[in-house]
Design goal:
By secondary structure, the protein is an alpha/beta fold. Helix content is 40%, strand content 18%. The radius of gyration is 21 Å and the shape is globular.
């Protein structure tokens, strides 16, 4: 495997993914780390039924897609159904049952271990891990550096000891750096190599290990980097991966990213209650950057402003005219006066779609 795309099941992400042909998801070099979130709330559904997201995934993914299923711990994307999955009773029985349903749809999928701090003796953590390995012979675990090295080391040691009899099981260890600034790549590299070094040492006798490094460099607001109406953002996640790969050679590490999505969610309607400045972002793989143009709305309709922003994007010499994907075509359509979407969420989907295709090309998954 060459690329694992990490994503939450938000509207912007799902819109981007459903505009990718199903045969791409069947490619063995591409995997998805799917963090399940609640569905969109409505008058008829005040909870935001989780099944909406599962149904959406089934509608456009190949049954053969390699999916690592995880559960969000972000409160703004949770509901009572999500909270129930973190119930530690009987080895996180609710999560085990839901994953069993997901496995029925996606038999190549992998369950991620979830952790609740109230499981202080890790007894249910252990039961969960054993159950998953015994049933499916595969399991995933994610390292969050914010948790602290001692806690991570303890949990990894528990897993390595617990699964010693299952040394041929497929075990995937993710290291999630989260948001990374270009200027902090060296510090992040040192942290990542420390954690991955601990993991690879503990699991050195296991035959079927995968190590994955994931991060993102897209900010929650481009104005936090520059107040200009145009600019570019360096894709520091690629630099971080290359740096860690060099430092940890010969350990093979799979590249992963957030698909240009920021870890800090700001797609809530309330966030844009006072309006926004229309912006379109264009990822460019060959120079590992995302360029953007913005334009103030003033007294015009948002849709009309996005048309003018798209025109500026398309005439830029960096625009990937040769890239055939929904995202690029959508920008080109807007540039000739069509109005495909007028919300930030829609144009986030466009950016993500282009970004994914650029990574698939960069990593030679697509020609």
């Amino acid at each position: 495997m060459k690329y694992i795309l990490q994503l939450k099941t938000g509207d912007a992400e799902l819109r981007s993914l459903k505009n990718i042909p199903i045969e791409i998801y069947a490619n063995n070099d591409l995997g998805l780390l799917v963090e399940l979130t609640r569905g969109r709330k409505s008058k008829k559904d005040e909870v935001g039924d989780l099944q909406k997201r599962i149904t959406a995934l089934k509608s456009f993914l190949s049954p053969n897609t390699k999916i690592y299923f995880d559960v969000t711990s972000e409160s703004s994307l949770s509901n009572s159904q999500i909270d129930d999955l973190f119930d530690i009773s009987n080895g996180y029985e609710n999560w085990q049952n839901l994953y069993g349903e997901l496995y029925g749809y996606f038999p190549n999928s992998v369950p991620m271990i979830i952790v609740n701090d109230i499981d202080v003796d890790y007894s249910n953590f252990k039961s969960q891990a054993l159950s998953f390995v015994q049933r499916y012979n595969r399991i995933g675990y994610k390292i969050y550096p914010s948790v602290g090295e001692e806690t991570v080391k303890e949990e990894l040691a528990i897993l390595a000891s617990l699964l010693e009899k299952y040394s041929t099981a497929e075990i995937s260890i993710f290291y999630d750096q989260g948001y990374i600034l270009d200027g902090l790549v060296k510090i992040a590299e040192e942290q990542a190599t420390s954690y991955l070094g601990i993991a690879s040492g503990l699991f050195s006798e296991f035959a079927n290990m995968s190590y994955i490094l994931t991060s993102t460099s897209f900010p929650d607001s481009v104005t936090s980097l520059s107040g200009n109406m145009e600019g570019d953002i360096k894709c520091a996640e690629i630099a971080l991966y290359n740096s860690v790969m060099e430092a940890m050679n010969p350990l093979n590490i799979i590249y992963s990213d957030y698909g240009s999505i920021t870890p800090k969610r700001n797609d809530d309607v309330a966030y844009y209650a006072r309006g926004w400045t229309p912006r379109i972002d264009i990822p460019i793989a060959n120079n590992e950057r995302i360029y953007y143009y913005r334009m103030k709305k003033e007294n015009r309709d948002y849709a009309d402003v996005y048309v003018d922003v798209a025109k500026r994007c398309v005439v830029d010499v960096r625009f990937p005219h040769q890239l055939s994907c929904w995202g690029c075509q959508t920008v080109q359509n807007a540039a000739i006066g069509m109005k495909p979407g007028a919300t930030p969420s829609f144009w986030i989907s466009v950016r993500m779609n282009i970004f994914i295709y650029q990574q698939l090309k960069r990593l030679r998954i697509l020609q």
